[in-house]
Design a protein that fits this description.
By secondary structure, the protein is an alpha/beta fold. The protein is built from seven helices and 15 strands. Helix content is 31%, strand content 32%. The strands form four sheets. Strands 2-1-3-4-5 form a five-stranded parallel beta sheet.
Length: 234
């Protein structure tokens, strides 16, 4: 799951940006947690370094976006900052606050989609290469590369790996925050799959490299194909 903050005081512009992000989410089958702020004060006052991406207007009431960005960099050097503005002449100063890029208003889907593709790949490249999981018998650390898929079975969660399966007391909702796109995607109500293990697709069935077969939810098929194509293109 990717956590996104949007700081925008114009309701029409905010609505448009949310609409484009929702479209991307559905087409790419990714999970976003989006929080909105109408001014910079509410955003920066209790900032806790818990966002992957920040979309920020420059022309904000009170403290403007550029000054807010300077304060943001004092708190967080890793978050990807994108200015969404009609002030292109100021947006080019983004290098001063290590902005990733900028979008001119009104945000179009073509521009946002292209930018999010690059942002998510960049974020994923910095993601942890292993995770700690609490099993029904203790704790273990798993490399992301060895996880084939995670599935809910009989009210328990199982990590299926190349070596063995690990039984856990957990939920897919919690797991989705650790196993993120573009490598991992949810293929049904009960399974999150590592796309690097996909060998082929036959109808609504994915054939994995170990010849195991997993069925995808038909209503998610287009999003899964898009996620698979995006991952294979990396």
């Amino acid at each position: 799951m990717y956590r996104i903050a949007i700081i925008e005081d114009n309701k029409e512009e905010l609505s448009n940006l949310l609409k484009q992000i929702e479209k991307y989410k559905e087409e790419k089958n990714v999970i976003f947690d989006v929080k909105t702020f109408e001014n910079a004060y509410y955003f920066i006052h209790d900032y806790k370094n818990d966002f992957h991406i920040v979309f920020m207007d420059i022309d904000l009431p009170g403290v403007n976006g550029m000054d807010t960005a300077k304060k943001l960099r004092e708190l967080d050097h890793n978050v990807s900052l994108v200015f969404v503005t009609n002030l292109a002449q100021y947006a080019i100063k983004g290098y001063e606050v290590e902005a990733y890029d900028f979008i001119l208003k009104p945000a179009t889907y073509a521009r946002l989609s292209s930018l999010l593709d690059k942002l998510l790949i960049n974020i994923d490249s910095k993601a942890p290469k292993s995770i700690n999981i609490k099993t029904t018998t203790g704790y273990t650390r798993l490399n992301l590369d060895e996880i084939i898929y995670v599935a809910v079975e009989d009210h328990l969660l199982y990590y299926h790996t190349q070596a063995k399966n690990y039984e856990c007391w957990d939920t897919l909702k919690n797991v989705s925050t650790m196993l993120e796109a573009p490598r991992f995607t949810r293929i049904s109500k009960s399974i999150i799959l590592n796309l690097s293990y996909v060998k082929s697709l036959e109808g609504d069935t994915l054939i994995l490299l170990n010849d195991e077969k997993v069925v995808i939810a038909h209503k998610l098929r287009n999003g899964i194909l898009s996620a698979l194509n995006q991952y294979m293109a990396l």
